[in-house]
């Protein structure tokens, strides 16, 4: 019998909602199988299923087939019929394991609790289901000897659905599902993940997770960019996976379950190969600063301490062709141990708050400008070193607050509006007129940036006279240029990648700098500005100018003449391997700041040399 009274949130869901300051709301979960869920069942070619084993551990699987392999049988009963991995799928083992072929296991309405997620990746539709298993059977699908050898079987499952809930399409990466026959091979059943499992995690852009609270269970999807699940630890002391909880519908059903019962079962499907990583473990939830300490720039983080795992080759009954990735996916958030640029936070160290006031802006090109800021409390902000970045918070200026969906600006939903900019000035300068090469007083700094997104666009549009004051989170980074006595320092810069060097210029003997600077013709204004502020750098610089064909012949000639008058060595082409390979003897250590494609090439060209580089992809 289906109860039609409103469904309330349980204690765990209410607790998480309070911790995250969610206004009071009704639970939109519907009793029974809705018409919407019935429709999606007939269209979908994937359904994730969760259940609990005899040890109380949740597991999750992902079944696939032709559209309609799962369908409504009426009266909130659904039937599923498809090929499965009969040998190593933990959910199939729990539901119908140990049965003879063709034997029907009838458990009635009081049977084992199950949860499911009906999902149609081609249209980004998904609906959560919860209920109980009524019956199940394994049977042959093809020659019996072949099935015994390859481990595939046909499963039939019947569930009585007690609750259903439509979920939003955010973070669903589109896939075209193609049915395939499972040919399962167990490669590892160790909780210490094997190399193949780690490779899968590195490219996985979604997983499915099951959790439960008392007799209520849920299965849901988590998606993001490839590699959004990070491996914090994977050794004899244990395996820990970490993922960020992104902005969603704020029901927090999965987190609520994990709050009262910190156990989860997950499947990471490989849509290319049909491989699967099955994981069950205990969980921790981190919120606010605790979350950011685990995974910088995250407000909510879940850790999974792996208790048991199986990596099964070709376990799944489908492959998937990648379509469009979700426009809501934020960038991958890395662990502090993976990247050194975990954001500083002045307030985490003391109760003082430092602010940066915008003092001046100089437009160097249509897309590059230099911004000067004053620091309200230098003691609270801390002293910075050349080569470091500053972290500024623009949330108060740009955030529109919570929205469930925002199709006009999807990435803004998970944007904390904290940005890091390499400081392009050096501290310790005199107050008043600027010293050569950009040395400023200790309570001022400059950043030289390109207009590439929402925050930089906001900065470029600011009226300086109106005043702008933003929280200064702190300074960080470890990129340092060291120049020993009589030592040559070679530095390769790609466009705006000159900024770390600019902050070091007052500390270096520029006669012993060898700068290789490749720029687009549109960025010539930046080059000329640097040489005008620090003329002694130009003779030590080789400038490579590309895209000169975008100018008229007269404009092109004028541009080259301006650069040559500065004293720089000018090449009217892109940088080539021979440009640096022929100068490797300059030093055993080279410095580099460039975008990923150029950096990759330079690391090959400078093979055999120590290359220290600043990564401005963060």
Automatic annotation (TrEMBL):
InterPro entries found in the cross-reference section: FAD-bd_FR_type, FNR_nucleotide-bd, Riboflavin_synthase-like_b-brl, Split_barrel_FMN-bd
Xref: Gene3D superfamilies: Electron Transport, Fmn-binding Protein, Chain A (2.30.110.10), Translation factors (2.40.30.10)
Domain of life per record: Eukaryota
GO molecular function terms noted in the UniProt entry: oxidoreductase activity
Limits of the FAD-binding FR-type domain: 351-482
Protein name per the record: FAD-binding FR-type domain-containing protein
Phylogenetic placement of the source organism: Eukaryota, Fungi, Dikarya, Ascomycota, Pezizomycotina
């Amino acid at each position: 019998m289906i109860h039609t009274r409103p469904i309330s949130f349980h204690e765990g869901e209410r607790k998480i909602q309070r911790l995250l300051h969610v206004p009071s709301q009704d639970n939109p979960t519907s009793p029974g199988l809705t018409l919407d869920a019935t429709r999606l069942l007939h269209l979908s070619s994937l359904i994730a299923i969760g259940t609990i084993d005899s040890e109380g551990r949740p597991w999750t699987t992902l079944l696939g087939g032709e559209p309609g392999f799962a369908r409504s049988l009426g009266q909130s009963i659904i039937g599923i019929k498809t090929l499965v991995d009969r040998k190593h799928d933990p959910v199939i083992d729990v539901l119908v394991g140990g049965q003879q072929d063709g034997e029907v296991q009838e458990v009635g309405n009081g049977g084992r609790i199950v949860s499911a997620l009906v999902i149609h990746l081609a249209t980004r539709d998904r609906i959560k289901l919860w209920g109980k298993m009524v019956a199940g059977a394994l049977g042959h699908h093809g020659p019996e000897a072949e099935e015994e050898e390859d481990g595939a079987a046909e499963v039939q499952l019947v569930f009585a659905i007690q609750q259903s809930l439509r979920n939003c399409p955010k973070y669903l990466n589109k896939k075209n599902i193609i049915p395939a026959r499972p040919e399962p091979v167990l490669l590892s059943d160790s909780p210490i993940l094997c190399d193949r499992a780690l490779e899968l995690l590195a490219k996985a852009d979604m997983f499915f997770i099951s959790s439960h609270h008392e007799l209520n269970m849920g299965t849901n999807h988590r998606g993001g960019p490839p590699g959004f699940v990070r491996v914090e630890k994977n050794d004899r002391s244990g395996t820990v996976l970490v993922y960020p909880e992104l902005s969603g519908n704020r029901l927090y059903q999965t987190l609520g379950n994990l709050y009262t019962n910190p156990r989860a079962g997950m499947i990471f499907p490989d849509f290319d190969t049909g491989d699967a990583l099955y994981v069950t473990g205990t969980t921790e939830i981190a919120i606010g600063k605790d979350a950011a300490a685990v995974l910088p720039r995250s407000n909510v983080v879940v850790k999974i301490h792996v208790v048991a795992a199986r990596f099964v080759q070709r376990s799944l009954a489908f492959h998937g062709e990648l379509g469009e990735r979700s426009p809501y996916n934020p960038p991958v958030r890395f662990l502090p141990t993976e990247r050194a640029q975990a954001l500083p936070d002045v307030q985490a160290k003391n109760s003082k708050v430092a602010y940066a006031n915008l003092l001046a802006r100089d437009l160097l090109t249509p897309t590059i400008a230099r911004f000067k800021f004053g620091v309200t409390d230098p003691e609270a902000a801390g002293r910075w070193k050349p080569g470091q970045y500053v972290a500024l918070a623009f949330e108060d200026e740009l955030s529109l607050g919570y929205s469930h969906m925002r199709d006009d600006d999807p990435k803004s939903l998970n944007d904390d509006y904290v940005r890091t900019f390499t400081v392009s000035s050096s501290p310790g300068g005199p107050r008043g007129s600027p010293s050569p090469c950009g040395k400023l007083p200790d309570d001022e700094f400059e950043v030289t940036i390109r207009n590439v997104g929402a925050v930089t666009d906001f900065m470029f549009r600011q009226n300086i006279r109106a005043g702008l004051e933003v929280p200064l989170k702190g300074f960080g980074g470890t990129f340092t240029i060291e120049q020993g006595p009589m030592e040559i320092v070679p530095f390769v810069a790609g466009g705006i990648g000159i900024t770390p060097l600019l902050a070091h210029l007052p500390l270096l003997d520029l006669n012993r700098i060898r700068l290789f600077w490749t720029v687009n013709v549109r960025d010539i204004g930046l080059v000329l500005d640097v040489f005008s502020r620090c003329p002694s750098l130009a003779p030590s610089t080789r400038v490579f100018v590309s895209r000169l064909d975008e100018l008229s012949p007269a404009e092109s000639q004028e541009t080259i003449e301006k650069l040559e008058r500065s004293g720089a060595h000018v090449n009217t082409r892109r940088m080539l391997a021979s440009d640096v390979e022929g100068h490797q003897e300059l030093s055993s250590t080279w410095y580099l700041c460039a975008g990923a494609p150029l950096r990759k090439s330079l690391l090959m060209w400078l093979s055999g040399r120590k290359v220290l580089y600043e990564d401005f992809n963060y």
